[in-house]
Write a structure and sequence with these properties.
Layout (H helix, E strand, L loop, with lengths): L7 H15 L4 E4 L2 E4 L1 H25 L14 H15 L1
Antiparallel strand pairs: 1-2
Length: 92
């Protein structure tokens, strides 16, 4: 909820809606938290693939005709400030 900047009740409602659509629970809930069920593990694989396809589609549509490729770099803030900003500038 915090990562998505939404309330916990919203997350719970969305998970409930997903479980209703699938007809099976995707989480096994306990006092210590929640774990994916077998159905949840199966769905997770497909969900990750869907996210990758969506990101690729967004990238392809948004790239201008001048650019054929895209580079994504992720790192901690310390690396960005000390090294990566200069490195990325040299790549251009």
């Amino acid at each position: 909820a915090a990562k998505l900047n939404i309330t916990q009740s919203t997350v719970s409602a969305r998970i409930k809606g997903l479980e209703d659509l699938l007809g099976r629970p995707v989480f096994e809930r306990s006092k210590s938290g929640a774990d994916l069920t077998t159905a949840g593990e199966q769905f997770r694989k497909h969900a990750l693939a869907l996210v990758r396809v969506w990101q690729r589609a967004q990238l392809e549509v948004s790239l201008s005709d001048q650019h054929r490729d895209h580079l994504a770099v992720g790192a901690t803030m310390g690396l960005w400030q000390g090294f990566l900003l200069k490195w990325v500038a040299r790549l251009r």
